[in-house]
Design brief:
heterodimer, A: 697 residues, mainly beta, five-stranded antiparallel beta sheet, globular, B: mainly alpha, elongated
């Protein structure tokens, strides 16, 4: 009998095989397996391959200044392999040293603009005077400095430091980096790595119509109880609105001086007794978050021209905790429209303004924070120069002040119209290139994000004396250059006049407000065409990464000319107040702008923070609820007359471990003067968090 | 089950598992050419200098912020006790030295007032209240100053001092009223 041959696999066998396959698949796919990190983009990252001189291939000795130093490839206890880099600085009076990746097409890692990279190294150092320094290859400019990422803590055992770069700027095709040592000590490094860490953006669908790209304004259903000529965002998120007499001689004559504190979370105002006419004062937040007010209005001008405005010498400190002013000693001279710039040591310099006799104040006035007093005339360095009214003096990374040329009233200063002022050396050196320096009255200058990039943008302006049409000019300057020179920037987008009449091609605006946003862009809004007349309805977004304006942002329906201001709120919106046209009226309406980023999706959440006190050169840990694109500290505004030279956005390079982020704060107080800052993180969908407050000290 | 069948079965299972494993490896393990992803890579190794990280980062629970103070919980940043970490000195770049640019000549201590003209605000205070601002210079193209003033909200504009701009043609100390 012929038996039918048995199949090699019976039905039961086939079922068993299927079960094994399914179980295997389930196990393999369901259980997290090995994570596959991105490729290390560096050549010779372990320093193991050396050239004929014994130095690692694709690496070079770099640095500048006066130091006694030595580079060596050490074989003693490297982190891995046979080699590590050792840089010894035995004496140093200036400059730094670093082992840097070679700036050539073969060795420098290629990068993609917009991408972020996790860069890491293992290290030992006997000095904390170290920093991870980045350079980038710009397709137009060649190799240029990019940014500093993080300070390394001292350690005698190998440690790893990983930091995520900001998004690579446009026009960049390669980067190099290394660890800089700028103090006496020994730095060893080994096993460098660089991995593309670009996060996938979740869906960014927006259903808000035009607001998706233009943002949206809302005029509040209540008015400000005071003329908000001076606006200061306080460390608790409230807004100090100072009117003093509010450009109202009747109030001045009656001794009626006003201040209110606005709470943007519930739309309420609290009156604050105001001890003097603080109209026309200067103001800046001190290191502890209190507000130093300097000068003010001693008198209005006489109709017959016998005298002009007169400045007070009075100075007060407003405390957000007690909601009260406290007097400090008088300034050395009257100050009507003075500048106020906080320095890296927490002191404040005030320049310009009008004195008690209506003359120009030529004294340099210096508030010593540690003594809580204005220094006497002979205690401060003096150049006896008149800096004009509300001169925009921006603190540079080395402690000098850059006079941007932005000012209030009339012509710019004689000469080139901008300069660098060195208080310590007591020198003023001209800076060239500012276009039409006599038509930059009530333009606005901002230190562009990030502060580490040391670039300034000056926007628009006019001249209340000659009263031409305000202009569309912008000027950009890179203060990293050996000899910084202003260069023309893109023209300000054109807007519309009252009634919807389009501006001509040459018309721009003065009374400009420029607000740094947590996404690293600059929102520009408000303005008018002539002296206290003819509001311009135009708003745009400036992108420092591309040096371009995106026109067509939503415009504030309220005219915002003379005595108007706009400033960032901790929730990421922009608030706008004030307008004081020539007929003497004052618009008390309050407007709030929601930028497009608020319509793009959910906001990232800062879940925890390693305390609110942030020392320089440290890494502070936060936890968040999802992927983060970047983090920053933004100094709260203290603005009047289109002038807030202290406004700045400080990048916080990130060390990323999932949702735990180390934020690396610069060691340089001139980049982030001491004080309270708004900490923002931006999700990969481009949406910023609500700010948390941290004190940099 | 015969020995042959057991062998075949074992081979078949191993074969299938091999194919599955290879497929999964191909899908999940991108080669170097694929390593410039748009998607996020796995979390990177962290800064090993962070205290307490060896035990894993502790993610504080989300606490609903108070209505008026949206503060977040504080997470530990440094171990208690122990020697203080040395602090880095400020790292300052050698920028903007302006080689060859001469500083302005220092000025002597002033012996007289630095004159600033009274109408520093560009307003002609001969007219109206001090808070008002008749332009010292009218905008370009203005041919009829009174019409311009009317368009800009000026009403019953008094002549407070001299009629510098000839706006009071009837001399009644009210500008532009005829």
């Amino acid at each position: 009998m012929n038996r039918r041959p048995l199949p090699l696999l019976s039905r039961r066998d086939r079922v068993r095989i299927a079960q094994v396959v399914i179980v295997t698949l389930v196990l393999v796919l369901a259980v997290p397996g090995k994570s596959f990190a991105g490729a290390n983009l560096l050549s010779n990252p372990g320093l193991e391959v050396v050239d004929s001189t014994g130095f690692p291939v694709c690496w070079e000795q770099s640095g500048w200044g006066d130091s006694t130093h030595k580079y060596e490839v050490t074989h003693t206890a490297p982190h891995s392999g046979a080699n590590a880099m050792k840089v010894t600085v035995s004496a140093i009076t200036s400059g730094d040293r670093k082992a840097l990746m070679l700036e050539n097409p073969s060795c420098a890692p290629n990068v993609t603009p917009g991408h972020q990279y996790d860069v890491s190294t293992w290290y030992k150092t006997t000095t904390p005077n170290t920093v991870m320094t980045m350079f980038r290859h710009d397709v137009a400019q060649g190799w240029v400095y990019w940014t500093d990422l993080a300070t390394l803590t001292t350690t005698t055992a190998w440690k790893q430091k990983t930091v995520r770069t900001p998004p690579v700027p446009a026009n960049t095709d390669q980067i190099v980096w290394g660890v800089t040592i700028y103090g006496v000590g020994v730095l060893q490094t080994d096993d460098y790595a660089m991995v593309d860490a670009t996060q996938a953006a979740p869906g960014t669908s927006c259903s808000a119509g035009p607001a998706c790209t233009a943002g949206a304004w809302q005029v509040m259903p209540f008015n400000s109880p005071v003329r908000g000529i001076h606006a200061v965002v306080l460390k608790n998120g409230n807004v100090l609105l100072v009117a003093g007499s509010g450009n109202d001689p009747a109030a001045f004559a009656a001794g009626t001086f006003k201040t209110a504190v606005y709470n943007p979370r519930n739309g309420t105002f609290a009156d604050v007794p105001t001890p003097a006419d603080l109209f026309c004062s200067g103001h800046v937040q001190l290191a502890d978050g209190r507000v130093l007010i300097m000068g003010g209005n001693k008198d209005y001008p006489a109709a017959d021209g016998s005298h002009g405005y007169k400045g007070l010498k009075d100075s007060y400190i407003f405390d957000p905790d007690t909601m009260a002013y406290t007097k400090v000693n008088d300034m050395t001279a009257g100050s009507w429209y003075p500048s106020a710039t906080v320095l890296g040591n927490g002191d404040v310099i005030s320049l310009g303004g009008l004195g008690e006799d209506s003359g120009g104040t030529v004294a340099t006035q210096y508030f010593k924070n540690s003594e809580q007093r204005w220094l006497g005339l002979n205690e401060a360095n003096q150049t006896w120069s008149f800096w004009g009214l509300y001169p925009s003096m921006v603190l540079m990374q080395d402690g000098r002040l850059f006079y941007t040329g932005s000012h209030v009233f009339g012509n710019g200063l004689p000469g080139t119209g901008s300069s660098i002022y060195d208080y310590t050396a007591n020198t003023i050196t001209p800076v060239t290139g500012l276009q039409r320096k006599d038509e930059r009255d009530q333009s606005m200058s901002v230190l562009l994000p990030p502060a580490q990039d040391q670039r300034v943008l000056t926007i628009g302006g006019g001249n209340i004396d000659s009263n031409p049409d305000a202009n569309r000019l912008t000027d950009l300057i890179d203060l990293k250059q050996a000899t910084p020179v202003y260069k023309p920037g893109p023209l300000l987008p054109s807007g519309k006049m009252t009634g919807g009449v389009a501006q001509t091609a040459a018309q721009g605006k003065m009374y400009v407000s420029a607000v740094l946003l947590p996404d690293g862009k600059v929102f520009e809004t408000g303005g008018a065409l002539h002296n206290r007349a003819d509001p311009v309805y135009e708003a745009s977004m400036f992108n420092p990464a591309t040096n371009t304006f995106t026109p067509g942002m939503a415009t504030d329906p309220v005219p915002r000319g003379y005595h108007s201001s706009a400033f960032l709120l901790p929730d990421g919106r922009v608030m706008s107040v004030g307008d004081n046209p020539g007929d003497g009226t004052f618009d008390m309406r309050v407007s709030v702008y929601s930028p497009p980023y608020l319509f793009k999706g959910g906001r990232p959440q800062i879940l925890s923070m390693a305390g609110a006190q942030w020392p320089y050169g440290t890494t502070k840990q936060i936890t968040v609820d999802g992927p983060i694109l970047k983090a920053s500290l933004i100094r709260p505004e203290a603005v009047t007359h289109s002038s807030d030279p202290n406004q700045r956005y400080v990048d916080l390079p990130m060390t990323v471990t999932g949702n735990t982020i180390g934020l690396n704060l610069t060691s340089n107080p001139n980049l982030a003067p001491p004080g309270w800052y708004m900490l923002y993180v931006v999700g990969t969908n481009g949406v910023p968090s609500v700010a948390q407050w941290v004190q940099v000290k | 089950m015969t020995r042959v069948r057991r062998s075949v079965l074992a081979l078949a299972v191993l074969g299938v598992l091999g194919v599955v494993a290879a497929g999964i490896w191909l899908v999940a393990a991108p080669g170097k050419q694929d390593a410039a992803p748009v998607a996020a890579p796995a979390p990177r190794p962290t800064d090993s200098s962070w205290p307490g990280l060896a035990a894993g980062p502790s993610v504080a629970a989300s606490v609903p912020p108070a209505a008026d103070t949206p503060a977040v919980p504080s997470s530990p940043d440094a171990p208690a006790g122990g020697p203080a970490e040395p602090v880095a000195e400020p790292f300052v770049q050698n920028y903007a030295g302006q080689p060859g640019v001469k500083p302005l000549k220092p000025l002597p201590s002033p012996t007289k007032k630095h004159y600033v003209r009274p109408n520093v605000d560009g307003c002609d205070h001969n007219y109206g209240e001090v808070t008002q601002c008749v332009p010292w210079t009218f905008p370009p193209g203005t041919t009829d100053k009174c019409a311009w003033l009317a368009e800009h909200g000026f009403k019953k504009l008094k002549v407070a001092a001299a009629d510098r701009q000839k706006l009071d043609t009837d001399g009644n100390k009210i500008a532009c009223d005829n």
